[in-house]
TrEMBL record:
Signal peptide: none annotated. InterPro entries: Peptidyl-Arg-deiminase_porph (IPR007466). Pfam families: PAD_porph (PF04371). PANTHER family: AGMATINE DEIMINASE-RELATED (PTHR31377:SF0). This is Agmatine deiminase family protein. GO terms for molecular function: agmatine deiminase activity; protein-arginine deiminase activity. One of its GO terms (biological process) is putrescine biosynthetic process. Transmembrane segments: none annotated. The lineage of its organism: Bacteria, Pseudomonadati, Bacteroidota, Bacteroidia, Bacteroidales. Keywords: Hydrolase.
Amino acid sequence: MTDTNAIYSLPAEWYEQSAIQLTWPHEDTDWKTYLAEITDTFVQMARVITLHEKLLVVASDVSKVQRLLLGELTAAQIERIIFFECPTNDTWARDHGAITLLRNDHPILLDYKFNGWGEKFKWEKDNAITRQLAEHGILQGTLEDHTDFVLEGGSIESDGAGTVFTTSQCLLAPHRNQPLTQTEIEQRLRQQLHAERIVWLDYGNLVGDDTDGHIDTIVRCAPNDTLLYIGCDDESDEQYADFKALEGQLQTLRTAEGQPYRLLRLPMPTAIYDDGERLPATYANFVILNGVVICPTYAQPKHDKQAMKTIRQAFPEYEIVGIDARTVIRQHGSLHCLTMQYPAGVV
């Protein structure tokens, strides 16, 4: 029977967390040519995470990761790590991890299809991770199979109060959910995420972003009806008009109560290139933990400092720490893309 009195919520990221997932890089991923550098970034992430909450490490070779972290972290931090071994294609836990819904505070693990952002890259092993974690009891809660529908964690943002934000350029992109229309996709999101409102953003696709415009690279939710977003001041930047249009759209948005959002503008990093290709550097891809926010930095002191200052305005009670994300963006993501948080009660 269906509990008609059940209360559902898609928790905001600042809801109390039980753990954060990292899916560890290895030599059979696209990180092979700079595996040492990206592994160092993962160690830095693990160091910060385990100071504040549990860390779930998914790895193709757990013993290798254990040996590495034993030499880098304290015994107390190691005790906070849950290791799980299974085959993996890549490292983007945000997009292959379970999206957690709460029903009367009971976790519902929504297992969506991950198909390599529209079948651009190998994905079959990563698509199987969530089910394996649930079957082995690592993730606690009811597993719901939605693998007939493609949805990546980085493509949605929840304010925790019934509004879900997404982007039209991502959810309507080829090789995801065609031939479903925008109306049909929105209906699914409302039903499966128990959302009262779906807000579609139509602008702000970062050059070099191969996810087709994930919202977690451009606009992020924060407490008290706050939205942090990437702005662009350089009229010579090829992204200028697009991000001006995004800013204009955000200014027209209203909360469920009909009030304007509090908008906090993050700087656009100075363009970073790799072999002539612009990389999708962004400060919006920060990671929220229990009591701390990790801000991606790009060795741009002025912009890095301004981004951390702005994030502090949104999270005044949180510690703000920076981790260099220049290696991460070489594979077209940033720090938030590497992680998936699980609310209290899941791990």
